[in-house]
Write a structure and sequence with these properties.
165 residues, 4 helices, four-stranded antiparallel beta sheet, single chain, alpha+beta
Length: 165
């Protein structure tokens, strides 16, 4: 079992997301991440999906997705050089001035933006690779007691060169 990544080009129509999600839930496949956005063609959307599965199950998922009328193209990104980022907001709350400075230092090290600041809170806005986002969350959890995390799913695109992730 490992994380597998798929990009789907689908018709940009009402209900397509529900149909794709229904395929996963109907077969009891758990989605780790799902993002959807329009492409350069407003009639086509691209979904980036992460699912944890074994090889056999993943092949079944790809075949079932390819059979859906609304799916234009299925791309297996699992073993392809890609560029991938996810958006994450981290709010550190109930902190004093020295801890606010500590959050600013962490933001600098992780090369993330301070999106908002208050008397006793700081909000970070991040566009990081999944591994780096996990590292940031773990560091914040280890240093502060009152944090709130909101993560978006990852988006990915095949690399032009051979560099990956």
């Amino acid at each position: 079992m490992k994380n597998r990544w798929i990009a789907l080009y689908v018709e940009n129509q009402v209900g397509v997301l529900a149909q794709v999600a229904g395929l996963f839930s109907g077969k009891s496949y758990n989605l780790q991440s799902l993002t959807v956005g329009t492409t350069e063609d407003p009639t086509i959307s691209r979904m980036t999906i992460c699912v944890m599965s074994d090889d056999v199950t993943f092949e079944q998922i790809k075949k079932q997705l390819n059979r859906m009328v609304e799916v234009i193209k299925v791309i297996d990104l699992t073993n392809v050089p890609i560029h991938m980022k996810e958006i994450l907001f981290a709010k550190v709350k109930g902190i004093d001035a020295s801890q606010i400075e500590q959050v600013f230092q962490i933001a600098q090290v992780f090369q993330v933006q301070v999106a908002d600041i208050g008397q006793d809170s700081v909000m970070l806005e991040c566009k990081l690779a999944e591994r780096r986002a996990n590292e940031l969350i773990e560091l914040l959890k280890s240093q502060f007691t009152n944090i709130e995390i909101v993560r978006g799913g990852a988006v990915a695109m095949e690399a032009i060169s051979t560099s990956s992730r």
